[in-house]
Structures are given as structure tokens and as C-alpha cells.
Amino acid sequence: MSASLRTADTLVAAPKARVFRTDIQALRAVAIGLVVLNHLWPVRLPGGYVGVDVFFVISGFLITGHLVGEMRRTGGVRLGAFYARRIRRLLPAAFLVLAVSLVLMVVLLPYPRWERGAWEVAASAGYVENWFLASMSVNYSAINDAASVVQHYWSLSVEEQFYIVWPLLLLAALAVSRRTAAPATRRGTRARTGNALIAVVAGVGLLSFAASVVYTTVAPSQAYFATFTRGWEFAVGGAIAIFGSRIPLGRAAAEIVSLFGFALIVFAALVYDHTTAFPGYTALVPVLGTAAVILAGGGFASLWHAKVTALRPVQWVGGISYSLYLWHWPLIVVAPFVIGGEATTLSKLAVLATALVLAALTKRFVEDAGQTWGYWRGSSRRAFGLMVTGMIIIAALVAGVLASYNGQVEGDRPPDDVIASTCEGPSALAPGAECADPFGAADYSVMTEKNEYFYTPAECGDFMPILTYGDLKTTHECDFSRGVQDPTRVWLVGDSHAQQWQGAVFDMAEKNGWIVYTSYYGGCPVADVEFTGFRSEWGAADVERCREWSRDLVETIIEDDPDLVITAMASRLQLVDDGSDRPQIDQMSQGLSAYWARWNEAGIKVLAIADPPFNGEVRSPDCVLLNTDEPQSCARPRAVAHPADPIVAAGAAAGSASISVLDLTDRFCDATSCYAVVGGIPVYYDADHLNLEYVRLLGPEIDAATERLLAENG
Q: Which is nearest to 238 in space by CA: 262, 206, 214, 265?
């Protein structure tokens, strides 16, 4: 595979011959340092993720310089040779870490994590991990999944996609300039070529930047991983490679520009955090900072900062940055399972040291050796053949892991009946219970299909056509009436914190012969509020769709006229802003009361279930796994784990016997603490939701509350 578009003329402002630049190596060291420190100590360096953007600009600069330099020398680009060089440079280390990560996952992590982890390994081997994560980011349930051992490969996927597309675009620019060239002067040909390159780089940069700003506003979760929202960062590096030499900088100006560039990168790393809308326009700060450092160093052997950046340790870290990026993340993920506890400062330092050693070894014996290995160095076909072979091996390993996972899942179906015995689960905290060890070791700690809060029985069938918004389907009809005339009809509505109660509701429906309608929208409140996001601000389109579903749901329920609405939601984490500057709890409780009152006025009774205590907000979601013998160490103060709930506040203000709030906090907490294991049963399924078994054990109390409410006033 090759492409050669010959021209007798030299490209305008072509890059100078490649020389080793300590400033770029230092930028690599800064970038990997920011990323690793952010992953190890996210609170201390909340914006360290901008190190990825530094890498993107460097890649755009170096690859564009290489490609345009080859065009200048030969009039074209040998695409096969170019791609083969990328394979030899990147894939040996990447595939090695993927294979080792898969083994670490199987050996050290609980098997329910194998399925998604294996699929992410496959996506990473195919360099589409960023799109896999983008697709998962729209799945609310997937948001709560624990991070996989290869999640960091998303940025490598973006880079590899850039390496595939960018040479083709530059060659297209060269082809256009050649076709439009009439017999003309050397200067005219150079001008057309330069204009074509300007058009490509500027076009990609401007379109991608605009898409990044818009998409970060509209769909921020997907925008973070999308290739087209990052393309402009590579284009900025490419522009410096092509046109940087035409920007005259004296030494004094270069000194100032370079230091200003480093300052911008550090500023972003220290000031940005997970709430920053990113990439979008905020990515300009680290991107332009990186571009400034590269631009300033182009005309001088060394600048002031070289007294630090050219030091051997800095250059060494820059040299191993690729392998260090590959190794650090899987070690962070598996470390708690190796030490049998949550990460400590000492364990994090051990992870860092281990990653540095593995990176150094991989750099020497895999990266460098892979590029000089004679078998494939002189043959692009062999390089491509070995790439395919590596992918096949990874695919075979993934298939084996998935087969093992499916074998273990077979016996993990939810039982038909769950009956609490004395001191089991929430019964251990029931009034009058006298249990010797209510917070002792759990009967199990690994969450399987038996524990999935979203388990849905066959009675629910497919999604209903109502309350559907594009690809979002929200509503099921679950018929447990067995043909009974005029059965009780119940709606269970809210976000996934309503869905987590459905196991108990379905048990009640089975016993009582109900028809249950469920309607859920992850993160979205059923309340008359100016909703803006869940935990952080949402994109405008998602906000509007949430508000529309909430309004439509209220009207649909009024038209349906059921006997009862059961509602629940994570109202403490849902952000609202009506412009009044009133506390969130006041705005939310008022909005809840407004919708409950509308249903009540229509003759519909309302049971609201208060939200359980926090889990992932106050402890590691793996706390029970890591403390199987002493789950009491996962206990958290009640005031911390269970702050004021707008649902409870709205219930206190309801003033109607047909509106009731069921607060089950005392089945999760005693007077002082809230627990992750009660009565031998883990309370939580994941960072944000309850264990299905624990919910079903609470079913009798929910059933009693509904019976009282339905019996009220006939």
C-alpha cells in the first residue's frame, strides 16, 4: 500500500530536518506526570487529565512534520511504510499490556467484571475503545460500572485513528494542488501547495473545534471520548509543524512564550476538575500552552527552562512516557485487590514505583527492540501480518474469558422467592431484633446476576411505545393480574433509584395480582423543577429531554388514572436551578410536592420512597469486597452518609393522607452509623444502587405501606 504524488517543487515552509528536542521530551514527561498523578491522587491534581491533550498536540506536531518532510523530499508519502512504522512503534507494547491486563483481571478481579473488561480489551486491540466508552456513557447503568483495566486506551484509540486519517488528508491536499497546477512557476506551485495544506489544517481544526464546543455543551459525556472533538488538537500541532518556522520569535520572546506555555498547562491541571466542561473551549488552555512551548523551542537549541526540562530524570520520564501510560492504569485498578484493602498513600507510591520499573523494561525490551527487530523492519507486509496475528491472539484470549464468564453466570439467576429469617438482611435492624452480630461478615461479597437491581421478569415484556424519545425508551407494562377483573394498577416511576425498588414491587404485584407500569429515566427527576443535571451539568439536549419526559409522564399518569403511584429518585444528586438562589433541597422538595399534588387532585394515591444512604459518595464501592472479614470498617457516620433528603421534606409538607413517604433509613443505619453489610447481606449492588436481594427482603415493609395507603379512604 503506497501513495506517491510527485511534484518538482518544494513545499512552502516545510519543516526542518528532524532533530531531537529536549523541550518536546520534557512536554511528554509533564503530560504523563499529570495523567498519572491525577489517577493516583485525583483530589490533589483534579485537572491532570489535560496531560492527554498535551500528548495530542505533540503527536500532531511530530507526525505532520514527518509527513510533510517526506512530501518535500519525495513528492509523496509511502502510506504502507508509514503505517508499518506506527505498528512497529506502538503495537508491541500495547498488545503486551493488553494481554497482561486481561490475565490480571481474571486472576484478581471478581468475575462479574470480566465481561465488560473483556469487551474493552477487544475494543482497545482494535483501537476503538474511545467509541466503546462513548456508547457506554449514554447508558446510565453503565456509568456506575467499575473502571476496567484498559479504560485508558481510549486516548490511544483517538491517536491511532488520527494516524490513519491524517496522512490521507494531507495527500488529498497535495493531489488537489497538483491537479490545479497549470504549467507555472515554481513559486506558483509552492503557493498552491501551501494553500491546500492551509485549507486542510485550518478546515479540520476549525470544524473539529466547533464540533467540540457544541458537542461538549449538548452531550458532554460522549464528547469527552469522541475523535472529532479532539481532532483540532492534533491540527494545532500540525499547524505549528508546517507554519511555525514562519513566525519570527527572538530569543527573549521565545523565553517568555515557552514559560507562558508551561504555565497554561499547569494552570489547567490545578484549576480544572471533573465538573469542567471538557474538551470544548476549555481545552484551549492546555492545547495552546503546549503549542506555545513547541513553537518557542523551534528556533533555539535551549531556553531558560532547559535548566530543568533538560535534566536527565525529566528526559528519562519523557522517554518512557508511552509505556508508563500503558502500565500505570491497570496497576491502579488491581492494586486494592492485591493489598486486600482500599488504596493508601504507601500503596499508591508502590504502584507508581512498579509502573516506572515496568515502563523502563518495556521501553528497552519491547518498544525499542520492536522497532529494530530485523524480521519485520524491512517489510511492511510482515508488520501488518504480525499486527493481525496479535489481534487474533487478543481476540482468542477475550473469547476464552467470555466463555469462562458465561459458565460462571449460569447458576446466578434470581430465586423465585426471598424470605427473610430472623437477623437476616434488614431484619437485623428491625425493632426488637436482638442479633448477636448484625454488622458481621457477609454471606457473599461478589455481586452477580442474583443481585442486579434492574432484574426484570418476563411479565414485563418489551418496551411500550409511549413515553419514547428517539432512542430512549422508558416504559414497561408488567402484568401480574392473571386475568383478574379490575386489578389494582400501579405506576413505579423515577430514575434508576426508583428502578432499584422494582424487585420488591414485582414481588408485591405477584402476590396481589397487580398490573405495574414502570417508567424510568436515569438521573432525571419526576418533579416540577428547572433540572440542569445529575451530579454535574448535563448537555442542553439531555436536559430538555429529561424535562419533557417528566412533564409527559405526569400527564400520562393522570390520563391513565391508576390506583397508586410509587416514586423514588436520587433527588439529593439531581441539580436544579430556578434562578432564585434558594437551597437545592427547597427547590426540589417544592417541585416534588407540586407533581404529587397534581396526582392527588386526580384521585391517585402517592407513595414516595426516601432515598437510601449514599454508597460510592462516601466509601469505595469495593469496600465490602476488600473487607470481607470486617465489613464494619465500611461503616460511615449517619450524618455523612445520609444527608437531608428532599423526598422526606416534601412528604412532611404534603398535608394529605393520600400522599405518604416511606423512610427506610433505619434498615440501613443505626443511631450513629450507616452500613454496607447488614444481617450478613451486602446492602449495595454498585456505587449507586441497592442489592436486589436486600431490596426484596425489605418488600414486606413496602407492601405494608402500600396496603395502608390503598386502604385509606376506601
A: 206
SS3 content of the chain, % helix, strand, coil (to 5): 60, 10, 35
Residue 618 has pLDDT above 60, yes or no: yes
Residues in the chain: 714
For residue 422, what pLDDT is reported?
Answer: 81
pTM: 0.86
Q: Which of 280, 274, 273 is nearest to 219 (CA)?
A: 280
Q: Which of 445, 448, 442 is nearest to 411 (CA)?
A: 448
b (16+ CB within 10 A) / e for 594-615:
ebbbbbbeeebbbbbbbbbbbb
What is the identity of the amino acid at 142? A
Q: With contact defined as beta carbons under 8 Å apart, do 238 and 202 qualify? A: no
Residues whose CB falls within 8 Å of the CB of residue 696, separated by 6 or more in sequence, listed in order? 418, 503, 504, 507
Q: Is 46 left (phi over 0), alpha (psi -120 to 50) or beta?
A: alpha
CA distance 644 to 376: 64
pLDDT value, residue 150: 96
Residue-wise pLDDT for 339-385, tens only, equals 988 889 999 999 999 999 999 999 999 999 988 888 888 788 999 99
Grid cell digits, residue 379: 517489510
Tell me if 79 sits within 8 A of 66, measured CB to CB: no
**Cell numbers 483534579 label which residue?**
46
Nearest to 518 by CA among 504, 532, 538: 504
Report whether pLDDT(646) > 80. Answer: yes
- Using DSSP's 3-state secondary structure scheme, residue 576 falls into strand
Q: Which residues contact 618 (CB under 8 A, 6 or more apart)?
A: 636, 640, 641
Q: Region 379-393: what's the mean pLDDT?
A: 93
One-letter identity of residue 476: H
Looking at this protein, which amino acid is placed at residue 670? Answer: D
Whether the Cβ atoms of residue 418 and residue 696 lie closer than 8 Å to each other: yes
Which DSSP symbol is given to 213? H
pLDDT digits (tens, 9 = 90+) for 20-46: 899 999 999 999 999 999 999 999 999
Res 182 pLDDT > 70: no
The Cα–Cα gap between 405 and 396 comes to 14
Most confident by average pLDDT, 17-26, 262-271, 364-373, 653-662? 262-271
End-to-end CA distance of the chain: 80
Question: Which pLDDT tens digit goes with each residue over 125-179?
Answer: 999 999 999 988 755 445 556 789 999 999 999 999 999 999 999 988 888 777 6
| Contact criterion met (CB below 8 Å) for 556 and 466 | yes
Sequence-separated (6 or more) residues with CB below 8 Å from residue 372:
none
The three-state secondary structure class of 224 is helix
Q: Residue range 273-287: average pLDDT?
A: 94
In this structure, the strands spanning 673-674 and 636-637 are antiparallel
Q: At what angle do helices 22-40 and 251-271 cross, to 10 degrees?
A: 10
| Helical ranges in 602-698 per DSSP H | 623-626, 638-641, 646-652, 692-697
Handedness of CA 447, 449, 453, 454 (dihedral sign): positive
Q: Is-contact 212 127, C-beta < 8 A? A: no
Helix and strand numbers, DSSP H then E, in the chain: 28, 15
Is residue 659 classed as helix, strand or coil in its secondary structure? strand
CB atoms within 10 A of CB 363: 19
Q: Where are the alpha helices (DSSP H) in 219-319?
A: 220-225, 231-243, 251-271, 284-296, 306-309, 312-319
Can you tell me the distance from the alpha carbon of 13 to that of 197, in angstroms, rounded to the nearest whole number?
11
Task: Say yes or no to pLDDT of 190 above 70.
Answer: no
Phi then psi dihedrals of residue 605, to 5 deg: -85, 150
pLDDT at 420: 67
Q: Is 406 exposed, middle or buried (0-12, 13-18, 19+ CB in 10 A)?
A: exposed
